[in-house]
Design brief:
Layout lengths: L10 H8 L3 H13 L17 H10 L2 H22 L2 H11 L7 H15 L3 H14 L14 H19 L3 H28 L7
Length: about 210
């Protein structure tokens, strides 16, 4: 099922390729979405990825504090919704993403976890908005450059925070999932503030 997260061909193309009735195809797709193997169906036209000019406009007015502020508005609610709506398979994905592989780049592992929760909120419009927000936040013109490699202790602490959020979602506890996500993002904001100070003063992270 590895390619099912990507955009599927149209129903007409799938019917032709698989040589199955459309009614059967729709039933199978609905079952896969219910199990979390496919993202929710998009209503109307397919979501279009913004071109570079759209991102450029947002990047020109954004800064890291704006990004984390919006994340703190959105992501605690995503965690709450995931605790209520996520399928068993989606919960397993969240739990897997919460245990990052040390061979995976720090930011990529973090993004994978948060995207799994956004997807499990089962709100396609919110997912689109969140995806756009993270694209702006990870743009090199907005993201604060690191003055030293990521601290192993911070990575371990972050993974523990992720795992606690995943556990709350798995236990279907929306209040705790929301609270833990908010606390986690407060930690992220603290890191951003510290990095901003280090860059402003010319220090190296961890030097004080």
């Amino acid at each position: 099922m590895g390619g099912l997260d990507q955009d599927l061909p149209s129903e007409r193309d799938l019917v032709d390729q698989l040589n199955v009735p459309r009614s059967r195809l729709r039933r199978v797709l609905a079952e896969l979405r219910a199990e979390g193997e496919l993202p929710p169906a998009q209503v109307g036209r397919k979501s279009s990825r913004r071109d570079s000019s759209d991102i450029d406009e947002l990047v020109s007015v954004a800064n890291p504090n704006d990004v984390i502020e919006l994340r703190m508005m959105l992501e605690p609610q995503f965690a709450r919704l995931a605790a209520v709506r996520a399928s068993t398979i989606e919960i397993k994905r969240i739990q897997k993403a919460a245990c990052s592989n040390k061979n995976v780049e720090y930011g990529a592992a973090d993004l994978a976890f948060h995207r799994e929760i956004a997807r499990s909120s089962r709100n396609p419009l919110a997912q689109e908005i969140y995806d756009l927000l993270r694209r702006v936040g990870t743009d090199s013109r907005v993201r604060l450059a690191q003055t030293s490699p990521p601290c192993p202790n911070r990575r371990a602490a972050r993974d523990l925070e992720h795992q606690a959020i995943a556990q709350a979602i798995a236990e279907r506890d929306p209040d705790r999932a929301e609270l833990l996500m908010r606390d986690h993002l407060l930690s992220v904001r603290k890191v951003i503030e510290e990095r901003s100070r280090f860059i402003a003063t010319g220090e190296t992270e961890g030097s004080s």
